[in-house]
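Field log, afternoon session.

UNIT: design team B
ACTIVITY: writing a sequence onto a fixed backbone
BACKBONE:
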């Protein structure tokens, strides 16, 4: 009987290590496919070096459309969008609060690094359509925005894009889409910990 309990304990530890590794290194790096949990559970501790390598998600813009800044003295603002109600509220907050004062506006949406080929192209096209729809809904007293579709981990991609454009303010919704956001904490919380720039959340709390 003791042998069975020992075996169950070993299996439980093996699976737990694999699942935690998948969650921390892989899912947080933007690889949203839940199959990674299955791989982690099967490989256990053997999954650690694979997960560390996969966790180094490369951030790269795949679709950039330049806008026109209004004036050099205005605030430079980046808004992260994912089509969720919270990100839309964040954009509306920018439109309401910064209308007539923003000098440059950058709208960014991040796609999964796990998708390849046709799946990646479909996701990027859908993301482009979403960004274009949001641009059409902006009031005329905001500058024409630059829009970017970026592949990578959401927080890393937003921080890298904010650095590229040297923005003054980074705006995101408090919550986004997806299971990993509910299980592992929101991108917004990650940004407030890591960003050296001001961060405005969709619920209008600031850092």
């Amino acid at each position: 009987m003791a042998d069975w309990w020992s075996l169950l304990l070993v299996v439980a530890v093996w699976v737990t290590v694999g699942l935690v590794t998948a969650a921390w290194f892989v899912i947080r790096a933007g690889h949203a496919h839940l199959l990674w949990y299955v791989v982690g559970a099967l490989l256990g501790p053997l999954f650690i070096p694979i997960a560390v390598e996969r966790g180094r998600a490369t951030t790269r813009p795949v679709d950039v459309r330049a806008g026109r800044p209004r004036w050099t003295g205005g605030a430079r603002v980046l808004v992260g969008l994912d089509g969720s109600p919270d990100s839309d509220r964040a954009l509306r907050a920018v439109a309401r609060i910064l209308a007539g004062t923003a000098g440059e506006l950058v709208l960014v949406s991040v796609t999964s690094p796990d998708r390849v080929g046709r799946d990646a192209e479909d996701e990027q096209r859908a993301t482009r359509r979403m960004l274009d729809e949001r641009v059409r809904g902006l009031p005329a007293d905001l500058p024409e925005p630059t829009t970017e579709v970026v592949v990578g981990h959401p927080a890393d991609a937003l921080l890298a894009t904010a650095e590229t454009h040297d923005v003054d303010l980074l705006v995101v919704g408090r919550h986004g889409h997806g299971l990993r956001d509910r299980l592992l904490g929101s991108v917004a919380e990650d940004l407030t910990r890591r960003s050296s720039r001001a961060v405005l959340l969709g619920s209008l709390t600031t850092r």
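LOG NOTE: The mean pLDDT is 80.
NEXT ACTIVITY: expression trials, pending approval
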